[in-house]
């Protein structure tokens, strides 16, 4: 089992390994789990799939090394046909299509678009139904439930699938005898309780305030919206800002950039990806941010930014990021080091937050001295520095009040 700090105790999902003939790991199927950890209990397939994706890429877990393997995830018709698409690197995922999928012209158009974008498909629970032969040219892997569809009764059909160059995956392999039989018949991959039961994955959910995600989705409908306007929107929502940094740092998303400002994060992620993530986050949003804490983080960020601007520094945007992220640990009730190691912040910003070092650390140190009313530190400043700090902190508080009022 994967070890976590005890605070990382949210149930994220379950995973079941998919093995090669040698019993080496090929990949993992990711399974939705709600409050009932043993069963899926899926009443809304779109929300379940979206929650798995958001947990995978935005939540805090210890899955980084396993995410280098391909993972399999079920996809509903609604998500296949929606604008959300997949904000995931195509090389890391196999999208599972159920054999019961209704085959419409719209669905095949969606398949074509996904394939053109580089995604691969697995046909799940295939029962050799002739009606679903039309799906075979679109898939790389065919999954056969060997309990529901005994392979010994379909030897010729299995040979025919192999002759097409398809990879065959035996699922529900419950014992050694079935494992050996499937190997003899030419199956390439294997999944089932004989090999390993699903393993629960725990971590820390990073939910977003619903309002912020919806506001971002609405803004992205405007094709002429500027990067600056989007930056302002995201900057008002610390959780959403954190999520974008988490996405940039996830190996699943295939971006892997470190950034020094929210604007940089948006540019690296791109407007198309930003829209996809905003839609998925909206589907899974549930919690509200404490208004008092939101106000503190916004005040810190704005004060650091104003101090940088007062010195005509080129690091004003970075200063805002440092101030806001300096208290993000309180939002999630986690150790600061655990929260910050998960995101794509530049090393200089991390040093400013954790050690208050460098130019950016100096702005944060001054801001915190004012916030905490640390008179010893304030008195050690020059009169001009005190005046600038007091004015910046007051202006930052007024700005934060306006932002919180606009959200409410």
TrEMBL record:
Annotated InterPro entries: dGMP_Pdiesterase_EAL/HD-GYP, EAL_dom, EAL_sf, HDOD, RNase_Y/CdgJ
Domain EAL: 1-212
Any Pfam family matching the protein: EAL
Domain HDOD intervals: 206-391
Protein name: HDOD domain-containing protein
Species of origin: Marinomonas rhodophyticola
């Amino acid at each position: 089992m994967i070890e976590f700090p005890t605070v990382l105790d949210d149930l994220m999902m379950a995973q079941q390994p998919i093995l090669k003939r040698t019993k080496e790991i090929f990949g993992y199927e990711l399974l939705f789990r709600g409050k009932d950890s043993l069963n899926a209990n899926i009443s809304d397939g779109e929300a379940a799939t979206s929650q798995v994706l958001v947990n995978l890429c935005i939540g805090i877990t210890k899955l980084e090394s396993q995410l280098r393997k391909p993972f399999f995830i079920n996809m509903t018709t609604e998500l296949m046909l929606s604008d959300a698409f997949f904000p995931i690197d195509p090389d890391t995922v196999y999208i599972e299509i159920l054999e019961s999928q209704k085959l419409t012209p719209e669905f095949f158009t969606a398949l074509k678009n996904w394939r053109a974008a580089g995604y691969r498909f697995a046909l799940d629970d295939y029962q050799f139904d002739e009606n679903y032969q039309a799906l075979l040219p679109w898939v790389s892997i065919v999954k056969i439930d060997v309990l529901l569809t005994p392979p010994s009764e379909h030897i010729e059909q299995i040979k025919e699938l192999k002759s097409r160059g398809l990879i065959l995956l035996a699922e529900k392999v419950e014992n050694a005898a079935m494992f050996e039989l499937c190997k003899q018949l030419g199956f390439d991959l294997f999944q089932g309780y004989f090999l390993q039961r699903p393993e629960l994955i725990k971590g820390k959910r990073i939910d977003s305030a619903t309002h912020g995600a919806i506001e971002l989705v609405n803004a992205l409908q405007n094709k002429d919206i500027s990067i600056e306007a989007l930056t302002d929107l995201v900057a008002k929502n610390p959780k959403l800002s954190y999520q974008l940094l988490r996405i940039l740092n996830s190996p699943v998303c295939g971006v892997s950039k470190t950034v020094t400002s929210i604007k940089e994060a948006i540019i690296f992620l791109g407007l198309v990806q930003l829209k996809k993530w905003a839609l998925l986050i909206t589907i899974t949003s549930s919690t509200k941010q404490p208004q008092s804490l939101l106000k503190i983080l916004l005040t810190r960020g704005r004060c650091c930014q104003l101090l940088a601007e007062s010195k005509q520094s080129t690091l004003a945007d970075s200063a805002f990021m440092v101030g806001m992220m300096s208290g993000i640990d309180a939002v999630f009730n986690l150790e600061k080091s655990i929260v910050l190691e998960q995101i794509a912040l530049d090393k200089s910003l991390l040093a400013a937050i954790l050690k208050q070092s460098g130019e950016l650390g100096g702005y944060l140190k001054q801001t915190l001295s004012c916030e905490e009313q640390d008179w010893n530190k304030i008195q050690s400043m020059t009169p001009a520095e005190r005046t600038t700090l007091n004015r910046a902190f007051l202006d930052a508080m007024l700005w934060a009040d306006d932002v919180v009022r606009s959200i409410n």
